[in-house]
Design goal:
Helix content is 61%, strand content 3%. The chain is mostly helical. Strands 1-2 form a two-stranded antiparallel ribbon. Helix 2 crosses helix 3 and helix 8 crosses helix 9. The chain is elongated, with a radius of gyration of 24 Å. The model has no long low-confidence stretch (mean pLDDT 92).
Length: 243
């Protein structure tokens, strides 16, 4: 089973449900992703079995689904009635709340090979960037890229035992603008020419998405700086000692 379906089935298992109700929950789950998605009773029964939700007889399960009043049937199987979506959302929504949508990291904005195996907090932000980009939340992706770069600059200075150079008089780390100026200075941390150039573009886009109420990022904005982001993150991951 795909990871988010597995988590959803774990949520179903925590609820007091009959087999037909669990089957309806599975149909509803797929309908959320692909409205009108049809499933055979055999496919539903296999998912339930694999998830430990019971071992219903597929024919009897199909008959029970027909009697439920929540599905229609066609050659491909059972699909949810439009009029049942709201009621089933109320019934099964608690089983899906908090589950992250599946993200194909192979199609991500920042290649997984660049950040995988670094640190958990770096991996989580990078994964969110890729998810935001994949689901077209471009302002969110822009702000998260800005956050990732800010974190990695600090990590690089800490790894070099030079953290005091990027703290103010109260011991707080500088804001990103000053961090970039320090990192790009001749006495910085060894960032390459291409990365230095990209850092300013990353900050500019992130600032617009975070602070300009009339600005909405589009895919092209992120595409224009994508190669620079990849270079910056790759260099900083190395400078931070994560690879």
């Amino acid at each position: 089973m795909e990871p988010d379906l597995e988590q959803f089935c774990l949520g179903l298992a925590s609820l007091e449900l009959t087999n037909v109700e669990r089957a309806l929950g599975i149909i509803w789950f797929f309908d959320q992703k692909d409205p009108g998605y049809a499933m055979s009773s055999g496919a539903i029964a296999r998912i339930m079995h694999d998830a430990g939700l019971g071992s219903p007889h597929s024919t009897r399960l199909g008959e029970a689904l027909k009697k439920s009043g929540h599905v229609n049937a066609k050659s491909a199987g059972f699909y949810l009635k439009v009029t049942s979506r709201a009621a089933l959302r109320t019934k099964f929504g608690t089983a899906i709340d908090g589950i992250m949508p599946s993200v194909d990291q192979r199609l991500g904005y920042i290649p997984e090979a660049v950040w995988h195996g670094t640190r958990g907090y770096i991996e989580r932000v990078a994964s969110q960037i890729n998810g935001s980009y994949q689901y077209c939340f471009y302002d969110g992706a822009s702000v998260l890229v800005r956050r990732l770069v800010e974190t990695l600059i600090i990590d690089a200075y800490c790894h070099a035992n030079r953290a005091d150079e990027i703290r103010d008089g109260d011991g707080n780390y500088f804001m990103l603008q000053q961090l970039i100026l320090k990192a790009c200075d001749k006495n910085g941390i060894g960032i390459g020419r291409d990365a230095k150039k990209a850092l300013h573009s990353i900050k500019q886009l992130g600032d617009r998405s975070a602070h300009n109420p009339r600005y909405t990022a589009v895919k092209a904005d992120l595409e224009n700086i994508q190669s620079g982001v990849r270079v910056v993150v790759d260099e900083l991951v190395n400078l931070a000692g994560f690879r």
